[in-house]
Amino acid sequence: MLLFLALVSPLAAQDTMPPAPYAYRQLDDPAQEAQAQALMETLRCLKCQSQSIADSDAPMAGDMRSQVRQRIAAGEEPEAIRAWLVERYGDYVSYAPRMTPLTWPLFVLPIVLLALAALLLRCRFLGGRDQ
Amino acid sequence: MRSPDAPPERPAPRRWAIWLPLGLFVGFVLLVLIGLLRPADREVASAMIGKPLPAFDLPPAIPDRPGLARSDFAGGKPRLLNVFASWCIPCAVEAPQLDALAKEGVEIDGIAIRDRQEDIAAFLARNGNPFTRIGADDVSAVQLAIGSSGVPETFVIDAGGVIRYQHIGEIRADQLPLIRAKLKEAEQ
Question: What would the pLDDT profile of A18-36 be if each residue is shown by its tens digit?
């Protein structure tokens, strides 16, 4: 069994290629690196979907980090890079919530509930004083 | 039951409210059951379907097949663009299906993701080589550009270079008719 596992594990491994140039290397300019880092923390890894590409060690996440850093280094705006990815993978790839026709209840509902709670409390306390 | 002429000190409790916790609990159990029995789809579909392929130019992945560029997708019949890798096990599973399609005259171009020349050659020697061209994508650049999130994935590209369909995961034998239908659809 151990021998079998030893034989199988290289096949099950992802790949043997070296990581993309900027997968694990920071940009030289700290300001650009900070921009890249902030963006990478809000982009979803597509292989490991509950991690951001900044958190993931999947080769594809490394390739995405490298691409993000290279584009930032080339002067591209972080939000333009996000838009480029959203164009390819949909909103799913971004962790930064957007107000869309589909998501507006998520933004509005908490306000409505808070208002409702305030109204209820007001009725209860003020109503009690009246009696 | 209280007699109507004896006024209660407090308002009568609502009878149905006693069932509320149970109702909530049953609702919760149903929700969990649905999640367990019908897990959500974890596949990330490309948003590029219906859009033209982006520009790219990949070097050859193996010596005996040319590389792959955007300009190769112009004219002719609809064709398949297969994103694969030698290290990907489902890619070997779909090899017979790709072979069958290639024998039917379907042109299949490949993009090898993060792969070494000798590994690809060994993979193709073992599983057959249905590809007309194979481009080497060592940093998943083209994969990201077409909205593919894994291997294997197969795209149907029409004669105008527009992405018409994305098949996520290996093409199984019973899915061959679907691929043929999508190719036919892409002719229009």
Answer: 899 999 999 999 999 999 9
CA-CA distances (angstroms) from residue B141 to B45, B64, B152?
A: 17, 23, 16
Q: Which of B46, B113, B140 sits opposite A88 (nearest CB)?
A: B46
Sign of CA dihedral B53, B57, B61, B63: positive
Residue A62, pLDDT > 80, answer yes
Backbone dihedral region for residue A75 (phi beyond 0: left; psi -120 to 50: alpha; all else: beta): left
Residue B102: helix, strand or coil by DSSP? Answer: helix
ipTM score = 0.81
Q: How far is it, in rounded angstroms, from Cα A5 to Cα A66?
A: 33
**A16 vs B contacts (CB less than 8 Å):** 87, 116, 119
Interface test with B, best of A9, A25, A63 (most B CBs within 10 A): A63
* Alpha carbons B136 and A13: distance in angstroms, whole number: 19
- Angle between the A78-89 and A30-40 helix axes, to the nearest 10 degrees? 30
Give the C-alpha separation, A84 to A87, whole Å.
Answer: 5
Contact partners, residue B149, CB within 8 Å, separation at least 6: A46, A47, A60, A89, B43, B44, B46, B168
- With a cut of 70, which residues of chain B have pLDDT below it? 1-13
Six token digits for residue B86: 């030698």
| CATH, domain B57-185, list 2.120.10.30, 2.60.40.10, 3.40.30.10, 3.40.50.360 | 3.40.30.10
B169–chain A Cβ distance below 8 A for any pair? no
What are the pLDDT digits (tens) for A77-113? 999 999 999 999 999 999 998 888 888 999 999 999 9
**Domain spans of chain B, in order of start:** 57-185
